[in-house]
């Protein structure tokens, strides 16, 4: 007969599950706050959290008492683990227990995980706490009920899921419904908001900058380093001292490094604590950007300026007005019209032979850039090349080359990077394609027609006011794209509906205080899951942040430093840059400064001019590594001490890349000669269609006849196969096949890559394959024939 020790149990805490013994729900259990229920936070029905993000904290089985004693066994008897297991499983199946768990925040998933952990803890522990031991013993000897285990189960659940105990606090921290309240300095003054609304080339930014120049102090916030640098130069040229602040550097107007009253900066770098007379926020429509929109929201709500001049598309007027209504500030809207006419032509280019000076061909992949530029130079024309991953200095040099009336370069081949940040004298914009790889709000990759907003932004670069071209023109490379382009440009730009937000370091630190065992990636996930925003805001995409957080999770860093590393501006598709960040973080964690010599060894500096496209792409990645070093040096000056030296070699690298871009067609030829004949897969792309298009186009490069040229320029149009509006793509691919054989064979013969004997063998194989109806039947005979031919050659 066991000793039940009831006097000891009277001193134990009240047990929530006792009332269930007679079938009554324990609704009034004082030790079980319902913090995870949907209406628990008192906010009028907040959404339930995504519990799949809750990672259990592992608990080791109990080793026993201080001296290996089992107090519970001494008070009662050793536990029969077989009987304990049966009763635990009976406890798990009880509907009343599951309902009580749900009332305490344990949904089906958490309840199951908590029970598995609870059962494992009991079964693998050499001893458990005295009170739990006594309850288990009573249940095994029919002196207790399995429901009496619930308080211990709930205590264990809160140990492995610490968020159960602090859900109300976590909800409050992640409540993003009142962003204006985050900026008390801005709310303490009455600001005047002036919205300069208009299309590209309407003078809206010019008027805002004029007010910026006339103010006693001011700040310009732009989306790109190029724009910030342009305003920095113009302001100082106007004898108004202005500093430049970007993520990688700070340039003072004065030699003694005193702060100037005017600042031109990238928008992420603007200060919300410094007072200004005038602030200019450029490209406000980017407040909807899935990745960077939070920076425009922060600037709009937080800048301490008497006047805020907002420039951008009219589609953002309503949202900005609504946001300012929540701050009690009125918006004055000034509308602008385009200064020069823009005409959509009624005919497509169709052939590169129809190019004229001042033309710009817009592509949406690097492979298309390489293909088109090679074909242009094969016709004896020089072209400038601009795409997103080029360094800013190289972009400026290419733009200068194209704009120079005395330079023989009169054609520009570019990506949508020309949409903002560069002043270009373009007469005609030619869309090589009207579909583009994009990333949606969920971080998923898609290929779709370019949106109206982007099409207008790019097309508007033609006929810039003050340039030699007083009228802009826009068309497409392919005739069938022209109708769709006209439809896109004629559509109204959809209104901007929401502004982006992003968790701040302070919010994540408060989360970490409550969840000290969670990883940074998991903290961000839980934050977004619990976050509450109203209809005017959305939480920005955090995939890049999480990618870096997971990559450096194993490195011991404090939370603030880890957060900074995860916000580093890098392209996660560049392995060399990501690997470098990992090495930076590892060296940083060891408290070892990252010196100039260390960086030179890692990047193998000095570097030679590129010999092919692969080397050019690597040089661009090294430039990004230098950018990353400078960005980190701005935040950890002691650990990245050689910013000045790195900036010097970055300028030299910029010059090397410029040489490579100027000789880009030579690099393409070198890349092709190193690869298999007929391929031009010189750079990796996220979308396989771009690779296929590059191969097809490469088979026709250098063709002089109009017939061969028409096939070459049609290659990028294959991408329309994924576009539901382009139903003729199948026919186009058949045309490519039928035309390609003759033109490719002739070109290979001319270049010496194909002999008449090889051509006859290919024709024989082709006939055999068609005679057999499929590949494979004649493979053995073909192999024998090939071996005989090889033997003849050797003789």
Automatic annotation (TrEMBL):
Domain of life from the UniProt record: Eukaryota
GO biological process, one term: mitochondrial RNA 3'-end processing
Top-tier EC class: hydrolase
Location of the protein in the cell: Mitochondrion matrix, Mitochondrion nucleoid
Ranges of Basic and acidic residues composition bias in the record: 779-795
EC number, as in UniProt: 3.6.4.13
Reaction catalyzed: ATP + H2O = ADP + phosphate + H(+)
Cofactor(s) this protein requires: Mn(2+); Mg(2+)
Signal peptide: none
Region (Disordered): 24-71, 714-739, 765-795
GO molecular function: ATP binding; hydrolase activity; RNA helicase activity
Protein name: ATP-dependent RNA helicase SUPV3L1, mitochondrial
Family classification: Belongs to the helicase family.
CDD domains: DEXQc_Suv3 (cd17913), SF2_C_suv3 (cd18805)
Keywords noted in UniProt: ATP-binding, Helicase, Hydrolase, Mitochondrion, Mitochondrion nucleoid, Nucleotide-binding, Transit peptide
Low complexity: bias regions: 24-50
GO cellular component term of the entry, any: mitochondrial nucleoid
Broad class of where this protein is predominantly found: mitochondrion
Domain Helicase C-terminal: 344-512
């Amino acid at each position: 007969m066991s000793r039940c020790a009831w006097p000891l149990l009277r001193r134990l805490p009240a047990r929530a599950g006792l009332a269930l013994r007679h079938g009554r729900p324990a609704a009034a259990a004082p030790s079980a706050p319902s913090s995870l229920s949907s209406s628990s936070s008192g906010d009028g029905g907040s959404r339930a959290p995504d519990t799949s993000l809750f990672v259990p904290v592992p608990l080791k089985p109990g080793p026993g008492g201080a001296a290996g004693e089992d107090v519970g066994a001494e008070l009662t008897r050793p536990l029969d683990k077989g009987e304990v297991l049966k009763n635990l499983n009976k406890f798990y199946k009880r509907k009343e227990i599951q309902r009580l768990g749900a009332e305490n925040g344990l949904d089906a998933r958490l309840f199951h995980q908590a029970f598995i952990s609870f059962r494992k803890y009991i079964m693998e522990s050499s001893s458990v706490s005295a009170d739990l031991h006594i309850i288990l013993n009573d249940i095994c000897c029919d002196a207790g009920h399995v429901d009496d285990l619930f308080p211990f189960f709930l205590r264990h659940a809160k140990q492995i899921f610490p968020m159960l105990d602090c859900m109300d606090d976590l909800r409050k921290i992640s409540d993003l419904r009142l962003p204006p309240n985050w900026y008390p300095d801005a709310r303490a003054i009455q600001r005047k908001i002036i919205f300069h609304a208009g299309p590209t080339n309407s003078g809206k930014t010019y008027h805002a900058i004029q007010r910026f120049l006339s103010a006693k102090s001011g700040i310009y916030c732009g989306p790109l380093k190029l724009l910030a640098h342009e305003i920095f130069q113009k302001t100082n040229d106007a004898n108004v001292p202005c500093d430049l602040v970007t993520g990688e550097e700070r340039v003072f107007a004065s030699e003694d490094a005193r702060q100037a009253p005017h600042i031109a900066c990238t928008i992420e770098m603007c200060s919300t604590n410094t007072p200004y007379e005038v602030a200019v926020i450029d490209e406000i429509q980017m407040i909807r950007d899935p990745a960077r929109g939070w920076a425009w929201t922060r600037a709009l709500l937080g800048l301490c300026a008497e006047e805020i001049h907002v420039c951008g598309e009219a589609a953002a007027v309503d949202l900005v007005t609504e946001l300012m209504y929540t701050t009690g500030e009125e918006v004055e809207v000034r509308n602008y019209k385009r200064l020069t006419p823009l005409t959509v032509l009624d005919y497509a280019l169709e052939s590169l032979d129809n190019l004229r000076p001042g033309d710009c061909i817009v592509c949406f992949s690097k492979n298309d850039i390489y293909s088109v530029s090679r074909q242009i130079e094969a016709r004896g024309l020089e072209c400038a090349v601009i795409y997103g991953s080029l360094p800013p200095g190289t972009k400026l040099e290419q733009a200068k080359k194209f704009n120079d009336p005395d330079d023989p370069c009169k054609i520009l081949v570019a990506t949508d990077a020309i949409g903002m940040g560069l002043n270009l004298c373009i007469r005609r914009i030619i869309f090589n394609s009207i579909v583009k790889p994009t990333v949606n709000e969920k971080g998923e990759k898609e290929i779709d027609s370019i949106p109206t907003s982007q099409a207008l932004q790019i097309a508007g670069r033609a006929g810039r006011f003050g340039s030699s071209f007083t009228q802009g023109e826009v068309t497409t490379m392919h005739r069938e794209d022209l109708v769709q382009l006209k439809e896109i440009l004629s559509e109204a730009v959809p209104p901007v509906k929401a502004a982006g937000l992003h968790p701040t370091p302070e919010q994540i630190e408060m989360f970490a205080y409550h969840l000290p065992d969670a990883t940074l990636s998991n903290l961000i996930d839980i934050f977004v899951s619990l976050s509450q925003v109203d209809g005017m805001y959305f939480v920005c995409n955090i995939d890049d942040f999480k990618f870096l957080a997971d990559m450096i999770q194993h490195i011991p860093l404090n939370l603030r430093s880890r957060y900074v590393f995860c916000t580093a501006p890098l392209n996660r598709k560049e392995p060399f840059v990501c690997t470098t960040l990992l090495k930076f973080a590892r060296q940083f964690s060891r408290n070892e400064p990252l010196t100039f010599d260390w960086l030179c060894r890692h990047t193998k500096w000095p570097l030679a001019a590129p010999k092919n496209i692969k080397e050019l792409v690597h040089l661009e990645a090294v430039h990004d590594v230098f950018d990353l070093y400078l960005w980190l040096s701005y935040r950890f000056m002691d650990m990245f001490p050689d910013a000045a030296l790195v900036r010097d070699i970055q300028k030299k690298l910029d010059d090397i890349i410029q040489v490579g871009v100027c000789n880009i067609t030579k690099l393409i030829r070198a890349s092709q000669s190193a690869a298999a004949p007929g391929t031009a897969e010189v750079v990796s792309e996220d979308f396989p269609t771009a690779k296929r298009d590059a191969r097809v186009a490469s088979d026709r490069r250098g063709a002089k006849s109009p017939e061969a040229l028409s096939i070459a320029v049609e290659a990028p149009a294959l991408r329309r196969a994924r576009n539901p509006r382009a139903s003729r793509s199948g026919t186009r691919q058949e045309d490519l096949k039928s035309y390609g054989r003759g033109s490719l064979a002739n070109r290979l013969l001319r270049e010496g890559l194909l002999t008449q004997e090889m051509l006859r063998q290919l024709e024989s194989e082709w006939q055999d394959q068609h005679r057999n109806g499929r590949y494979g039947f004649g493979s053995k005979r073909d192999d024998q024939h090939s071996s005989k031919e090889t033997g003849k050659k050797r003789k």
